[in-house]
Amino acid sequence: MKNEADNKKSPSSNKLFPMACGEGPYNYAKNSNYQKTGWDLVKRLTSEKISKKLDVEHLISPGNLFRIADMGCSFGPNTFFAVQDIIEAVKSKQNKSKLMEFQVFFNDHSANDFNTLFRTLPSERSYFAAGVPGSFYGSLFPKASLHFVLSSYTIHWISKIPREVQDQSSPVWNKGRIFYGSSKKVEEAYAAQFANDFESFLRARAEEVVPGGFMTLLIPGTQNGANLLKCTSIAISELLGSSLMDMAKEGLVDEAKVDSFNIPIYYPSSEKVIAIVEKQGWFKIEQIQEIARPMIQQLSKQDIEKYALFVRGWAEVVVRDHFGVEIVDKIFNNFTEKLMKSGLLSDPSIAPAVDLFVLLMRTNN
User: Fold this and answer.
1) Domain ranges within the chain, ordered by starting residue
2) For the ranges 125-129, 143-147, 283-287, 349-353, which has the lowest average pLDDT?
3) How far apart are the first and last CA of the chain?
4) Given CA atoms 242, 248, 249, 250 in this order, what sign does their dihedral have?
5) Quick check: helix, strand or coil at residue 357?
6) 145 against 8, higher pLDDT
7) What's the fold here for domain 4-21+29-226+263-300+351-362?
8) What is the pLDDT of residue 4?
9) Bigger pLDDT: 210 or 63?
10) Which SUPFAM superfamilies match (predicted)?
11) What is the pTM of this model?
12) Would you say 122 and 15 are in contact if contact means Cβ atoms under 8 Å apart?
């Protein structure tokens, strides 16, 4: 997740994991309606805060150029929807005698499918577009050059798996598991890595965002104090791990391969996010809110298959990189079958998935 310019300021990361691209049925753009729905749930909250709190005239004076950056944009249409919603909200604040121009920077790491991103740019867009490859854990823009930063469904990707989780001699070795839901020590190691990464993200944005500028984060998370194994997002990842172990027992995959595989994702609680932001002091929390996704009690076979495709959309590249392209279809077919039998998505004892809506204002510090 970095380029050479980021080497001194970014956490180390050995591999890049872009969302599944191409034209096939499993690509991220075709299976990211979940993320689109998440933005739809919070765009009104963002617009309201822009209307009440964003001092547009002060931010862009003496010029008339408003700069927006989407950190971790991927390549599907969701980034275009979100950017346009932000622009419309900002336009409603502008002085009609001094019309603003907008410049939007689409950022993701260098392995992202920027070709698809720019090939599908809206033809009627009201902004100038540019791509910025590189890790958002390091600096990417000149100081005090951005007025609004968006990051949607990206901050939960940690830059690397904690070393001790992969060390066979460590008491934190995550043998037979691919996630942290079943072990407090593993969860603590993941949480520490998330905190380091999030602090790096905030430090870089603090340099780039003008005082009074906004940052909207949409982060898949967990409810404060929740039983992790009873949280949908974590239970889903544990189910994928269980599916892989079943395949290992059948001799379809190497058990040692499963033991050495961990998903580089952490779902924070709002308490953890607040603690990290307040510790640094670069941004003021204007609003933070847990938004729960309602559970659907009656799910059709098609509904479950669609959800499995959503999981494959974000997980395929990580799985393929570790286990090889030849076995990917088998892995996700087994996972889908296990998801069908589990009843997990309609289990009333499982807490619904939670999105954390976080709106920050850059302070003068």
Assistant:
1) 4-21+29-226+263-300+351-362
2) 349-353
3) 28
4) positive
5) strand
6) 145
7) Rossmann fold (3.40.50)
8) 34
9) 210
10) S-adenosyl-L-methionine-dependent methyltransferases
11) 0.89
12) no
The pair of structure tokens assigned to 64 is 């008339």
Per residue in 164-195, is it b (16+ CB within 10 Å) or e — as a string? bbbeeeeebbbeebbbbbebeebbebbbebbb
- The residue with tokens 């076979």 is 301
DSSP-based three-state secondary structure for 74: coil
Statement: residue 364 has pLDDT above 80? yes
Report the mean per-residue pLDDT for the chain. 88
Q: With 90 as the cut, is the pLDDT of residue 162 above it? A: yes
The amino acid occupying position 241 is G
- Among residues 244, 255, 38, 207, which one has the least CA distance to residue 46? 38
pLDDT in tens, 81-115: 999 999 999 998 877 657 889 999 999 988 888 99
How buried is residue 295: exposed, middle or buried, by Cβ count under 10 Å (0-12/13-18/19+)? middle
- φ, ψ (nearest 5 deg) of residue 60: -100, -5
The torsion angles phi and psi of 286, rounded to 5 degrees, stand at -80, -35
pLDDT digits (tens, 9 = 90+) for 14-48: 455 554 445 555 555 555 577 888 888 889 999 99
Q: Would you list the DSSP string of 118-184? A: HHT--TT-SSEEEEEES-TTS--S-TT-EEEEEEES-TTB-SS--GGGG-TTSTT--TT-SSSTT-H
- The beta strands (E) that lie in the chain are given as 65-71, 101-108, 128-133, 146-152, 209-221, 283-292, 354-362
Cis link prior to 62 (omega < 30° from 0)? yes
Q: Which residues pair with 269 in a beta bridge?
A: 222
Contact 133, 69 (CB under 8 A): no
Give the number of residues written for the chain.
365
Residue in the structure block whose two tokens are 């309606």: 33
